[in-house]
Every structure is written in C-alpha cells, then in structure tokens.
Amino acid sequence: MPGQGTVVQSGLSKESEDLMTASAGATIDVVVDRADIVADQVVSLVLRRADGLPFDSWQPGAHIDVHVGDGLVRQYSLCSSPEELDHLRIGVLHVPDSRGGSKAVHALLPGTPLAISAPRNNFPLRESRRYLFLAGGIGITPIIPMLEAADAAGKEWTLVYGGRSRKTMAFAQQLEDRYGLDRIRIVAEDEVGRLDLDQVLGMPRAHMLVYACGPGGLLGAIEERCMGWPPGALHTERFVASTLGAAAANAPFEVELARTGTTVTVTNDKTILEAVEEVGVRVLSSCRHGLCGTCETQIISGEPEHRDAVLSEEDREAGEIMLVCVSRAAAGCPRLVLDL
Amino acid sequence: MTVSTHEANVLGEDPFETANLLDPYPFLGRLRDAGAVSYLESTGSYAVAGYQEVYEVLTDFETYISSGGLGPRDIRKDSGWRPPSILESDPPIHTVMRRALTGVINPGTVRALREPFTPPAEELTEQLAERKRFDAITDLAEKYPLRVFPDAVGIPDVGREHLLPYGNMVFNAFGPENYIFKQAFAQGDEHAAAVMRNCQRENLDATGFGAQIWKRVEDGLITEQQATLLVRALLSAGVDTTIFGIGNTISVLARYPEAWARLRENPKMAKFAVDEALRLESPFQKFHRTVSVDTVLGGVHLPAGAKVLVFLGAANRDPRKWGDNADEFDLDRNASGHVAFGMGLHQCVGQPIARLEMEIVLQQLLKRVSTIEPDGAPAPILHNVLRGFESLPVRITAG
After folding, report:
1. For the structural domain made of A248-338, what CATH number should be given?
2. Domain A130-238 carries which CATH code?
3. Chain B, window 326-345: residues with a beta carbon less than 8 angstroms from a chain A beta carbon
4. What number does CATH give the domain A28-119?
5. Chain B positions in Cβ-Cβ contact with residue A129 (cut-off 8 Å)
6. Is the per-residue pLDDT at A262 higher than 80?
C-alpha cells in the first residue's frame, strides 16, 4: 500500500459474506502492476497476467473472483476498458467492520502474485437506444466500462453518481473530465444533499434502460420507483444478496431430482444445493450466496421463492429457473421438481 | 439526415364493420399485406398490423402517447366519457399510478392467490365433467373470473352484476361510436355509478387489492381520486379480458385434440398452451394511440395529433415474426414476445392474475376431461375491440 501508514484496515469488497466454498474452474495467475488510492478508502488495482499474455475478451458489467489468500475469494467488478486486454482493473473499497477480503486486497503491493478467475458477467449491458446509469459509491465500478461502450456506440446516455462526498467517490473527477458535465452528474451528499430519486426516475423515457449498482438500500428505492417504468427497464447489481429473502421463513420441503430419480428433503437449516450435494448429485456452483448465478437450475414444476440477487424480473416471473444455493420453495409449495 | 417517406396506403375497408369483427383474420391479413402503415378512411386513423410496427408503437410511449385516449377521438381536445384511466395517461401522471399498482399486483402477491383460486375451479370443472356437453363460455369462462377476481379486489357482493356490462362499455369505447358502442352504453350511467361505488375506500374489503391501493394514498404516493381510478381500472380491465382468454384457449384446444392429449400427459405445459392460445386468439385485438410529434414509421410520415390504430391480434399472427404457420396453434412454439398483454410501459399490470386464472382453469379441466371437441359452431361476440365468443358449445368425455 503506497504511503498508508502502519496498520492495514480490515475491509472488503463487493460482498461481505461471500466466502466461497467451491471454486468454479481454473484460475489465472496475475501480478499486481499498480495499486493507487483513488478516493478515501478506495484502492484501484491494475492486474497483469504473470505469463505476459493478454486477457480473454470480456464485456462491460463483468466481474472476477480474486483469491485473496487464506482460502478467501472475493468478487470485484472490472472497471478497466474491455478494449485494453493487457490489464484488468478493479476498485476496492475498505469497510471497517468486514471480515477480511478487502483487508487482504488493500495490503497488496505492486509485484504481488495473485490468482483470479476468468471474467464472468451477471450484469450485461443490453442493447437499447438510451441508457440511464445510476451508481451509489463503489457501485460505480461495473458502470465505468458501460459508459465507455454506450459512448462508443453513439448512444444517448447519462450517469447519475451519488456518494457521501467527492473525496469518497472514486473516479468521479476522471469521469467528469472525460465525458463532460452534460453526461456526468455527480451528487455528493455533503454539497447538494442526497440523490433525489423522484427527480431522476419520475419521468420514464421510451427505449431507455436503467443500469444501477450500489448498496441495497439505494437499489431498493430505485426498484420501487422503476415500478412506474416499462417492465424490464431496470437492471441492477447488488453488493449483497437481497435482504427480502433473508427475512423469509425456512420451511422444510422436498426436492425431486427428475434426471437422477431421487427425492431429497430440504430441512430448514439447509439449502437445496447442500441437500442435493449430500446425496452425491453434482451441481456447478460458486459463490453459494445468490450473487454469481453459477448454480442456475431449471425448474420442472413447483413454485420457487427467489432469494438471489441475480435473476431479472422477467426470469423471476417466468419461474422456470432458480439459484439453488439460496432460493427455496415458495410458501405453500411442498415440492419442487428440478432438472437435476 | 433525411428520411425518404412515402404515403400510407389508403384502405377503404372498415375494421369495425360487422363481418370484420366476427371474423377478423382475413381482413387483418389484407391489412398486413397492404404495407407497414395504412390509412383507414373509415376511422380517419393510421393503422399498423405488422409485428415490428406494432412493437415500435407500443414501446415508444413518448411518440405514441396514451393521453389522447384509446379510442378514435382525441380526448385531450374532446373530453372522454369518464375521467381518464391509467391506460389513458402518460408519464409523469402514469408513473405514480403504475408504481402504486405494481407495488400491489406483482408475482409475489399474485402467487398467494393460487390457493384461494383453485377450489372454485375444481368445483366448476367437477360439475361440468359430469355432463356430456356444455357451453365453455356461459358455463365456465364467464363463471370462473366472476367468482374469484372480484373477491381478490375485495368489492362487495352487491353490484357485481354491473361488472360485465361496465367492462363491455369501457372496451367498446376504444372503437368508433357505432351501434355496438351505443348498445353497450344503453344503461351506461347506472353501470358506471355502481362500479364507482365499489371503488370507494369504505366499500372495499380490508385484505383485497383495492384496499392495498388505497393504502398508497396514506403513503402519499397517489391521490384519493387516483386510487378510485386504479380500483376502477382493475374492475374494468380484469374481468372481460380473462373471460375471453379462457374462452379463446378452450376454443383453440377443442380444435387441436392432439394438443389436448399431450397436455393431459403433461399438465405442467398448461401455461405454455395458454400463452400460445393468447397469441393465436388475442382477447384484446386493437386500440388507438395518438402521435405526439411528427414522426416516420415504416417509411410513412405520421403528423402530430394523428391517431394510430394498433392491431395486437394481427401482430401476433404476423408470419414475419411467427413463421408460415402463424395462423396455427403449436404447443411447441415459443410464444414469448406476443403482444396480447401489450408491451412496454402500459403492459397489462394484471397479467400474472390473468395467467394464473387461465392456467388453473385449464389444469383442472385437463384433470377431469379426456377429450373435448366443438359441438356445433361457436358464436363469436360482436365487439369493437375484443375477440371472443358468446357461446362455445363443446362435447366432452370425462375421465
């Protein structure tokens, strides 16, 4: 850490709880090329491949897993340019009360070797004529490559970026300099008060998609206002799994594995994924907290209660897929039949 | 940038003529073939019937606005017969109303309806399965939504008989003021007053959707008048359309015995069958939008203030979208993208309720009826914008 005194604070990244118990595939060896403080408690890390080769191409909205040591794996959105594959950049926020991830990441010095996953994308930028980007705090990171893509494609777009104060808001100045004040609206709470979402979202626009990334409270407020927008207009990425699901009751239910021909009981202290793995059936999974989308499973029958932070509103409505790591059977549905 | 444009093809045929209402598809085929955008002399409006153009009009809610009303007249100039509904409003007025409604009716709240909605369907289909013949409209499609939906909204028992006549007025007013319209409005004041009474806070059951909409007044999101209008919207849009959705689904399946047999083997496919039937026989066939600024659609210049008649039922059978068998029922077709519930900003907010009702009825019928076939010719209803049947006699074997 360049010039940061003695103790590296414990801190974290995108999620506070996503200790990964299963690794999803091969890792890539990289080396930290640069570590820069870009805002209060935010460090930007530039990573290059240890073998000097370019990274595989990726799309705006993608994230990588970073193996930060001691078995910890954290997910960070990429905020570099998909056009420049010689390096990847992530922005890391330090949060004082977290359990480890960003403490370790904050401690990384240039030259440190690291293992990461290939980029994965749960937050892809869909084709549209217009975009409204909304970022809260470190939620700016996945949005940055989206701005570049929308701008390069000549789309009509604006960014509204809220934070506590300018000095906590990573990349705010660079974005203003690069795209101008017509496109970039920085809303720093200590200068102009909190982001007025009624003003930002009160007038839906045709053929405009809304991409929002930030803390759960902000996204909840955005979701409520976007109920007045066309269905499917809003796309979000959360830092932690939806609190809605966490509060719900965990009633036991049965899961029939249609291809395997067995039935398992999912007791209230277990997830579907755990129950299925116990009987020796393999399910590809990664974060196991409803954040990465790896364990998506087809529902043959039954009503799921989605507790993930990945599926779109349309997917939730269709009720044909679920993330078995967190989602359960809906109240009143004693049995799910899954394509496993 | 210049856009080359041509004049709209002028059509003398009247979509609201009796023959075209009773059997719309030959006319709709001619309308689609006439070009991307036609001009209808009979109504003085432009018309779109191809999927691409219909989709564009529905999704570009800034250019094709709703506050001019869904009928042929511009209600901004010439006030309509009732205070404008959510369907007849644009952002930002529309936005708060839609937020209030979506907060109350969404997949989460609708899922809880499966339990109360199932026993009435079991009871109805059990009774029907004991008969060799019945009328799928009067004995089933009309009965079921009227039993479950007003309860879900929470209106009193008194005055429910006005719901169907009121819905008939609302939807027929999306067409011209012809004899069908006049007939629908014959006792209009009485029906409208009765329905409006059921929209008042004090008349609504505390647990229904109606009371939950009124709760948003306390939250400060909507006004009392808007709450009344939103409950009215549920009552006017939620009954007729679902009746026709059920009736049309059965009318299609009675003609496709192989599909029925496959559904019997796999009743989980019922929701896909309903979706494909809605594509093929869309209950809500057409309505108007109003052009807000001079624009070009399908190479045709449309002036601000013009009315555009949007043919949902034609878009849902456009071979360019659905292939050469667009006029056929295909249980394996992915009907996703059909516009039977509209598309975009104004897409039917009650869609999950309607789908639930239709799926439950079909699944219960499949449980008890091994074959179903037409028993004489169905009688299509004479309606300006809805497609459905007055009578649909069927012959069944139970089991």
Report:
1. 3.10.20.30
2. 3.40.50.80
3. 344-345
4. 2.40.30.10
5. none
6. yes
DSSP state letters, B134-184? EEIIIIIITHHHHHHHHHHHT--STTGGGHHHHHHHHHHTTS-SSHHHHHH
Which residues does residue A49 pair with via DSSP β-bridges, in sequence order? A30
For position B106, what pLDDT does the model report? 78
CB contact under 8 A, B91 and A203: yes
Interface test with A, best of B60, B63, B90, B98 (most A CBs within 10 A): B98
pLDDT for the residue A247: 27
CB B396 within 8 A of CB B157: no
Nearest CA in chain A to B96: A228
Contacts A224 to B, Cβ<8 Å: 99, 103
C-alpha closest to that of A137 among A192, A177, A95, A100: A95
Does the beta-carbon distance from A224 to B99 stay under 8 Å? yes
Q: Tell which residue, B172, B326, B353, B150, has the closest CA to residue B245.
A: B353
CB-based burial of residue B30 (10 Å sphere; 0-12 exposed, 13-18 middle, 19+ buried)?
middle
Cβ-contact A237, A318 below 8 angstroms: no
Q: Which residue has the higher pLDDT, A92 or B304?
A: B304
The answer to whether residue B1 is domain-embedded is no
Alpha-carbon distance B54 to nearest alpha carbon in chain A (angstroms): 15
Contacts of A229 in chain B (CB under 8 A): 95, 345
Question: Domain map of chain A by residue range?
Answer: 28-119, 130-238, 248-338
- Comparing A99 with A272, the larger pLDDT belongs to A272
In a domain, B253, yes or no: yes
pLDDT of residue A14: 37
Q: Other C-beta atoms within 10 Å of A320: how many?
A: 12
Inter-chain touch B99–A227, beta carbons under 8 Å? yes
Instruction: Write down the pLDDT at residue B89.
Output: 96
Q: Tell me, yes or no, whether B13 lies in a domain.
A: yes
Average pLDDT over residues A278-292: 77
Domain contains B181: yes
Quickly tell me which residue has 């700016």 as its tokens: A140
B-facing residues of A in 193-222 (CB < 8 A) are 202-207
CB atoms within 10 A of CB A221: 17
CB contact under 8 Å between A202 and B111, yes or no, is no
State whether B95 and A204 contact (CB < 8 Å): yes
Q: What is the DSSP string of A277-333?
A: HHTT-----SSSSSSS-TTEEEEEES-EE---S-S-HHHHHHT-EEETTT-EEPTT-
Closest residue in A to B104 (Cα–Cα): A227
CA B184/CA B166 separation, integer angstroms: 8
Length of chain B in residues, anyone? 399
**Interchain CB contact of B92 with A (< 8 Å):** yes
* Nearest chain B CA: its distance from A64 CA (Å): 32
Q: Which residue of B has its CA nearest to A319?
A: B107
Mean pLDDT of A222-234: 90
The pLDDT, as a whole number, for residue A217 is 83
Quick: pLDDT tens for B129-186: 999 999 999 999 999 999 999 999 999 999 999 999 999 999 999 999 999 999 999 9
Q: How many CB atoms are closer than 10 A to CB A11?
A: 24
Answer yes or no: is pLDDT of B342 > 50.
yes
* CB-nearest partner of A330 from B63, B98, B111: B111
A335 at interface of B, judged by CB pairs closer than 8 A: no
Tokens of B136: 């799928």
CB contact under 8 A, A227 and B268: no
CB contact under 8 A, B111 and A229: no
**pLDDT value at A305 more than 50:** yes
pLDDT score of A8: 22
- How does the average pLDDT of chain A come out, rounded? 83
Predicted structure pTM score: 0.82
